[in-house]
Amino acid sequence: MENCMQKNIVVLVSGGGTNLQALIDSQERGELGCGRITCVISSKPDVYALERAAKHNIPARVIPRKAFSDAASYSAAMLEAFREEKADLIVQAGFMTILDASICRAYPNQMINVHPALIPSFCGKGFYGLHVHEAALAAGVKVTGATVHFVTEVCDGGPIILQKAVEIQQGDTPETLQRRVMEQAEWHILPEAVRLFCDGKLQVNGQVVSIQE
Ligand code: GAR
């Protein structure tokens, strides 16, 4: 981090946290620019992502989705946490809960998500985790990939920052495809998008993001 104001990154997780790990590894290699992961928030207790945070001395919180009766009360609790953490950027890295519009309004173009397909294919409500890869295989597409985008009120519909294509191989299962999409796409484009954001290189004009490198 040279000559720049630190940007506080809050990472939201719900599971294994391999994308969180990719972000931590990038940070440790000095590749997140002005960004610093200052807090991890999990929507579930006892997930491996929390152990990854602990191993790297990153403060973590659990705000369980199950403890809240609806998306509005859950989103209000999350919003309070983001403010307490002085978040500059919120990253949904394998976060399996949909937050409501109040958060999108409070953090416009300051929240990003990684999705395991080439949006606008295989996205929207119900398309998460392995379901996305099941749908791609069922449709018989030969190429899939991953997308990093800003989060708006439209599920998986916000401005696209980066995408990377991945070939589907004969005999792929949802699990083998998920792993290849992570290895070849997600773990690269998510940290790269975070660096671009934290270094002020992203300009958003309506639905279109341009990169000023
Ligand atoms: C990743 O493939 C991520 O793109 C996907 O869940 C997986 C989480 O893995 N996210 C979604 O489907 C969100 N709609 P991880 O916990 O190992 O990062």
Quick tags:
seven-stranded mixed sheet, alpha/beta, two-stranded antiparallel sheet, about 210 residues
Overview of this protein structure:
The longest helix is centred in the last third of the chain and has 25 residues, at 174-198. With 213 residues, this protein is an alpha/beta fold. Helices cover 35% and strands 24% of the residues. The radius of gyration is 16 Å and the shape is globular. The protein binds glycinamide ribonucleotide. Glycinamide ribonucleotide binds next to α1, β5 and α6.
Number of DSSP strands?
Answer: 9
Query: What are the distinct ligands in this entry?
Result: glycinamide ribonucleotide
Strand content: 15-25%
Structural class: alpha/beta
| Shape summary | globular
Output mean pLDDT.
Answer: 97
Largest sheet: 7 strands, mixed
Question: What's the total helix number?
Answer: 6
**Uncertain ranges:** none
Cross-sheet strand order for the largest sheet: 3-2-1-4-5-6-7
Provide the gyration radius in Å: 16 Å
Helix content: 25-40%
The run of helices and strands is EHEHEHEHEHEEHEE
